Amino acid sequence: xxxxxxxxxxxxxxxxxxxxxxxxxxxxxxxxxxxxxxxxxxxxxxxxxxxxxxxxxxxxxxxxxxxxxxxxxxxxxxxxxxxxxxxxxxxxxxxxxxxxxxxxxxxxxxxxxxxxxxxxxxxxxxxxxxxxxxxxxxxxxxxxxxxxxxxxxxxxxxxxxxxxxxxxxxxxxxxxxxxxxxxxxxxxxxxxxxxxxxxxxxxxxxxxxxxxxxxxxxxxxxxxxxxxxxxxxxxxxxxxxxxxxxxxxxxxxxxxxxxxxxxxxxxxxxxxxxxxxxxxxxxxxxxxxxxxxxxxxxxxxxxxxxxxxxxxxxxxxxxxxxxxxxxxxxxxxxxxxxxxxxxxxxxxxxxxxxxxxxxxxxxxxxxxxxxxxxxxxxxxxxxxxxxxxxxxxxxxxxxxxxxxxxxxxxxxxxxxxxxxxxxxxxxxxxxxxxxxxxxxxxxxxxxxxxxxxxxxxxxxxxxxxxxxxxxxxxxxxxxxxxxxxxxxxxxxxxxxxxxxxxxxxxxxxxxxxxxxxxxxxxxxxxxxxxxxxxxxxxxxxxxxxxxxxxxxxxxxxxxxxxxxxx
Length: 566
Hints:
GO terms for molecular function: sucrose alpha-glucosidase activity. Belongs to the glycosyl hydrolase 32 family. The radius of gyration is 23 Å and the shape is globular. By secondary structure, it is mainly β. The chain is built from 1 helix and 35 strands.
């Protein structure tokens, strides 16, 4: 949801007591290495070069914090992601964009495409703000109306989103007949007029196969409202899911998934952006599993779960792949979030663009963990296209004595994967990433409490940030079969940590000193055993910047009257 950035403040979350002195003087570790094994279609005519021929260092004329593998605009401001749609093998993705920042407010939908959700091309603004008298263009969702339920033609791309004018939020409809490159406003807007609510925004729309109708989840303050429609224009209120402990809810999502990939065992998932102050969390994406009966959502448990426990994963959208069969579409989805936090969104040390970045795209599954369904997240396989030759070690012992640093990254972005022996005698192990010039970000594991954590109080931006930025972010992560795994994606301005195959995730902005990219580790209270260590460089995935428009015609994917669908 677009907001006035200067008015937003997030809240702190509690940190583990064992981390209270995280930045105090600590003993530098020494490592004993065992011998290492020798391991190591769309409308646009151009495609990215193969990873093997790609550069692993960002171009010299890029600003210090421009990401190597994360999506950002060339300039100006970005925030909320909008769910991608697939047309002729090409993902069409939109995000909120403000070309008038910081002097002017109001967002519009900016358009980018990709065939692999790793390499991106941008195409400029797809839906302009302040053109139809109803205000700017805010968060919503796009669908492909393959059966012409709305009457704009089979295969029309239809976007329904919030417009806000003089503080009043309404839902409007826009139509694209050129494959999602440019949209026109519907003459009958708004399709949903405000009933007098202060917060009434961020419609998320899917096709309900079981009932042959469109289904909308709408953020209404401390409630998610549910609406249905036969044609995307006329909407009927069905029920609401209310909370009094998560602040103002935003950016809802509603979808169905199979548990452990079994299509005979499915649950509905309701997700939303929330404020976790009352639960010792920051703002982020919460979710519940439960049932949707066509009228109301009933949660399996009252307490929400968090899709990501880091400080910077908000306005999340998820989607499936319509090229897969029904069972595959139920088994996994993609997800992407806004890698930023309203508590400091306008204070980041970037000059050529503002608003942070998008997270890497993840694959999410609904897995039985400790007897309950849990959304697990992992980097998509396509990220491996960027991988270079890895430095691999096995049976690494990290001792509490002074000595040597780890093998050093030779790329601006990289992937660090380690397996920790849960029986290690240490209290904690801490990896320092983006180290140099007296600054670093810490990724660690607390063996005593079974908690993974990220701390950035010593990073290069910490001193200029609000106190909430410097708080330690934690996630419960008990060992599995005697092992704890950390899969860490490090880029020029971010660290994303996937623990135990994605049972816990911590995504955070993180800023190093210009050019600093050191990596080291320390073990506190005893020795840490690393069963394995793998450091993989990631090639640069530069965004192809151009304003080329697609040929006329749509060519939407065949199937049900929505893409993506449940």
